[in-house]
């Protein structure tokens, strides 16, 4: 539970709407919280730079942490990227060169303000974290430190687009989000009558971003741009990196710790795609207090010991029954002095016939085959959990019915895993384009199976993501499939289960046609990063999560969330329907602005016909105040044949009940070994 702080060390002043003009003359909209004392005693500046609308869509969250940080002696600047919120211009894709140049201009502006010392930090979650890391790699002179949550350093291999060369359904879902967000009108209360022209400019420049992403199905220059892993040495300022085990972005924390050569700290909790002080599943932590300590050290020069202790702190999760949502994950905080950690060693378990053999055991060579039905993956959950609606993986027993399964005997003692498990497979496929999905589960004594981590590999990417090559049907190859990084304690009496399937829909788009995989046991193995610490470990504790009191809102229409799996056993149509309806919220402090937001995703298929796979996203966003009302309705539909993807998108914009703008898009994109 977040504790609302009523009294802060500094009184603050808020500038609700400030224009920042960047180098090409475009004006970006900002909101600023800063200490009153900064009028005579300048303070360091903190920038959060995202496209998610400071006026309304992030207003509640912003009101929790920006005033808190400002009250501890910082000028906090929250900027909407060009083409979003009240900022001028258009937004046509993520992480463009223009976006990063704008950020550098904003930092330069901030450093020159009379109330700022010129010592600057950037922070954020998701896009805000991407922005901070990518801008840090450009080495702007006044950026002294960053604090980032839920991010990646590799835009192709470890974002919501592709995983192991397999296309994720979140590639479509996140395009749906930005198709909606990038076409919203600004608030007339701030920009006046220009709002109509700005809205039309956004709609005229719009398009479904997934069209672009589908034109880059392999790792090319489009993805290497702004991927920090291309040259970690570009990052020259201290980094505080956080994420959650229920999020899709946990891998990058470990990679960043291992590869950047700057003062750095890592923190991974049990959380979904949320800030640690708002973390779900719990326990949430006092992250804002940690940020204050971080900024005090790097921007004010306070010797507060913030770099003492472990380089990486993680929540070691205990065994739990499978569930699509947890209020709290049981476990404990553990610390590693460096990463990779000297406390972690690889333990190889050979694959035997339907079992994981003991380390060093010699097993007979057998070829085991699987052709998974399209239903394997219905209970996979989201690539990145938001915990609303409940979206974690459910009981894996039904998934395992369409998979090859290998598991240990009941464990005689607890086993702790920390890091990225890996499975090496001696494998063959009977089709030129094939994928393999691997899952690691904690099997309870009663048979319920909780997925712990998973990995994907498009077999045409077996030698790298830059130049995929079709599989020679029947030809054996050896491949390594990495799982997502995880911290998990498998309890004594439980089993560790490895599951292998040839599809994992709808989390990942399936291959063009059903595929039979053949796995040879004698030359395949699961490698676990087993954590063992001699002696008693120190207790790691965090403060209670706290923040400023959120702004006042009124829920006018209730929210509704659902996650429904359905099967029609007459027509053999199956579907996953996801509804994320935030209802209607009024903002009294913004002249009773009313905001409505509803998204519906549907992923469907018929029997095991791979050419019936379909993904649809629909968003309705509405804004109203008095006699002003503006609504956008956006829709994307993605289907496929064995050789092509087919994309249809539509946008309708309304003033009141009158449709004032309407656009349609059609696109056919060849499948590139996907």
Written description of the protein model:
Keywords: Hydrolase. This is Hydrolase, CocE/NonD family. Residues 292-551 form the Xaa-Pro dipeptidyl-peptidase C-terminal domain. GO terms for molecular function: dipeptidyl-peptidase activity. This protein folds into 3 domains: 10-155 and 225-336, 3-Layer(aba) Sandwich (Rossmann fold); 345-531, Sandwich (Jelly Rolls); 552-670. Helices cover 15% and strands 39% of the residues. It is built from 11 helices and 34 strands.
* CATH fold name of the largest domain: Rossmann fold
Beta percentage is: 35-45%
Low-confidence stretches: none
Q: Biggest sheet, open or closed, and with what strands and sense? A: 10 strands, mixed
CATH architecture designation of the largest domain? 3-Layer(aba) Sandwich
CATH superfamily of the largest domain: Alpha/Beta hydrolase fold, catalytic domain
Q: List the total number of helices.
A: 11
Q: Could you name the CATH class of the largest domain?
A: Alpha Beta
Radius of gyration, in angstroms, nearest whole number: 25 Å
Distance between the termini: 44 Å
- What is the count of structural domains? 3
Structural class: mainly beta
Share of helix among residues?
10-25%
Q: What best-fitting shape do the alpha-carbon axes yield?
A: globular
The largest sheet has its strands arranged as 2-3-5-4-6-7-10-11-12-13
DSSP strand count:
34
| Rounded average pLDDT | 97
């Amino acid at each position: 539970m977040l504790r609302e702080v009523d009294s802060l060390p500094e009184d603050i002043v808020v500038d609700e709407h400030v224009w920042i003009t960047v180098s090409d003359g475009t004006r970006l909209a900002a909101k600023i919280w800063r200490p009153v004392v900064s009028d005579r005693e300048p303070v360091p500046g903190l920038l959060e730079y995202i496209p998610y609308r400071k006026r309304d869509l992030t207003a509640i969250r912003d009101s929790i942490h920006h005033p808190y940080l400002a009250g501890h002696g910082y000028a906090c600047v929250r900027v909407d990227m060009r083409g979003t919120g009240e900022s001028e211009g258009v937004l046509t894709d993520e992480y463009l060169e223009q976006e990063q140049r704008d950020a550098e201009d904003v930092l330069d502006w901030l450093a020159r303000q009379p109330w700022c010392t010129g010592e600057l930090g950037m922070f954020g979650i998701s896009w805000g974290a991407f922005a901070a890391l990518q801008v840090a790699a450009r080495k702007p002179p006044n950026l002294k430190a960053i604090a980032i949550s839920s991010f990646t350093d590799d835009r192709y291999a470890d974002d919501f687009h592709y995983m192991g060369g397999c296309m994720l359904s979140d590639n479509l879902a996140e395009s749906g989000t930005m198709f909606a967000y990038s076409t919203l009108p600004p608030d007339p209360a701030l920009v006046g009558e220009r709002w109509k022209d700005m809205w039309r400019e956004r709609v005229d420049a719009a398009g479904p971003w997934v069209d672009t992403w589908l034109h880059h199905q392999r790792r090319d220059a489009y993805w290497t741009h702004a991927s920090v892993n291309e040259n970690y040495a570009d990052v020259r300022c201290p980094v505080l990196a956080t994420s959650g085990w229920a999020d899709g972005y946990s891998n990058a924390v470990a990679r960043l710790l291992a590869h950047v050569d700057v003062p750095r700290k890592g923190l991974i909790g049990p959380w979904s795609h949320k800030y640690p002080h708002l973390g779900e599943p719990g326990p949430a932590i006092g992250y804002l207090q940690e940020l204050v300590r971080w900024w005090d050290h790097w921007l004010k020069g306070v010797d507060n010991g913030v770099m003492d202790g472990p380089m990486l702190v993680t929540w070691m999760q205990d065994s739990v029954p499978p569930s699509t949502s947890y209020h709290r994950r049981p476990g404990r905080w553990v610390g590693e002095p460096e990463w990779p950690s000297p406390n972690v060693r690889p333990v190889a378990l050979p694959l035997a016939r339907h079992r994981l053999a003991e380390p060093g055991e010699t097993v007979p060579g057998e070829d085991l085959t699987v052709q998974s039905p399209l239903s394997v993956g219905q209970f996979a959950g989201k690539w990145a959990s938001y915990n609303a609606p409940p979206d974690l993986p459910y009981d894996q027993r039904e998934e395992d019915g369409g998979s090859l399964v290998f598991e240990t005997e009941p464990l005689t003692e607890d086993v702790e895993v920390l890091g990225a498990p890996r499975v090496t497979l001696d494998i063959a496929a009977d089709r030129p384009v094939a994928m393999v999905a691997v899952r690691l589960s904690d099997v309870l004594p009663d048979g319920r199976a909780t997925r712990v981590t998973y990995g994907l590999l498009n077999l045409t990417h077996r030698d790298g993501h830059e130049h995929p090559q079709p599989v020679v049907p029947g030809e054996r190859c050896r491949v390594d499939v990495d799982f997502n990084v995880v911290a998990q304690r498998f309890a004594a009496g439980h089993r560790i289960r490895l599951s292998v399937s040839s599809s994992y829909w709808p989390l990942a788009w399936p291959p063009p046609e059903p595929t039979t995989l053949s796995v040879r046991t004698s030359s395949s193995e699961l490698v676990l990063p087993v954590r063992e610490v001699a002696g008693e470990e120190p207790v790691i504790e965090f403060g209670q999560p706290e923040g400023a009191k959120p702004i006042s809102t009124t829920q006018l229409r209730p929210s509704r969330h659902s996650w429904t799996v359905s099967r029609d056993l007459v027509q053999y149509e199956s579907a996953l329907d996801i509804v994320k309806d935030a209802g209607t919220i009024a903002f009294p402090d913004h002249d009773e602005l009313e905001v409505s937001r509803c998204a519906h995703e549907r992923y469907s298929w018929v029997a095991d016909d791979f050419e019936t796979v379909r993904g649809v996203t629909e968003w309705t966003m509405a804004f109203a105040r008095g006699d002003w009302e503006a609504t956008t309705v956006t829709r994307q539909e993605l289907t496929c044949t064995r050789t092509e993807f087919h994309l249809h998108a539509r946008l309708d914009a309304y003033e009141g009940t009158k449709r004032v703008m309407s656009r349609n898009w059609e696109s056919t994109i060849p499948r590139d070994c996907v």
